[in-house]
Amino acid sequence: MTTPTLSSFHQKNHADKTFATNLSLQSKIRNQESKIFNSPSPLNPLTPGHSGVAFTLVELLAVITIIGILAGLTLGAAGAVRRHGATSTAKAEVAALQAACDRYYADNNTYPVNTNVNPSSSFDARNYTNTGVVLFTNLFGTNQYNRPPLTKRYLEPKPAMVSSTTNANPYFIDPWGGAYGYNSDGTNSPLIWSTANQTKQGGTNKWITSWPNL
């Protein structure tokens, strides 16, 4: 039995199909190679392990610098606001103490007497505590914040204005935690001041006082 011979047309058609199959196979092989060598893969250590656009070191440093500048401006502004708020509070408290002393004088014809502290020679609020106890006891009517008054009360301070709300012999404190200074001979209007956290003579221009600044 003999194998029939394909006509030239069928031979050409078969060859075209074989050629097309080979082209398709080669195309698939090239696509697979492209995926392997152009994609992050353990098979291709020369390609980077990430895709997409990355920041350069200079760009990162620029961003960090800008963030640092903005943070510094924000903290500086917040500090200025706190200082301004503390100063305003101290001025109001000095005025309240002065008014309470005036009410005390109206009833007793004398101010609470204490001349142990002189603002021209004592610049540290830690030296004012004993004088502050005398002032507190006279204006509050007792020597302890959480007790009822024994005499007339001339001032109702907030807890933040008192060195202790539970212990005996507290004193009035400013927003910085220092004792308020007080000086009076009983006759003349008292001197009341806050050092505003200043401890040197050169800082007296920042004090909050019941008289014009030193």
**CATH structural class of the domain at 84-209:** Alpha Beta
Name the overall outline.
elongated
Radius of gyration: 43 Å
Q: How are the strands of the biggest sheet laid out side by side?
A: 1-2-3
Mean pLDDT: 82
Folded structure, characterized:
44% of the residues lie in helices and 4% in strands. It has a domain of 126 residues: Glycoprotein, Type 4 Pilin. The chain is mainly α and 214 residues long. Strand 1 and strand 2 form a beta hairpin. It has a three-stranded antiparallel beta sheet with strand order 1-2-3. It is built from three helices and three strands.
Please give the structural blueprint.
Elements: H1 8-38, H2 57-108, H3 129-140, E1 181-183, E2 191-194, E3 208-209
Antiparallel strand pairs: 1-2, 2-3
Notable features of this structure?
mainly alpha; Glycoprotein, Type 4 Pilin; elongated; 214 residues; 3-stranded antiparallel sheet
In short:
The chain has 214 residues and is mostly helical. It has helices spanning 8-38, 57-108, 129-140; strands at residues 181-183, 191-194, 208-209.
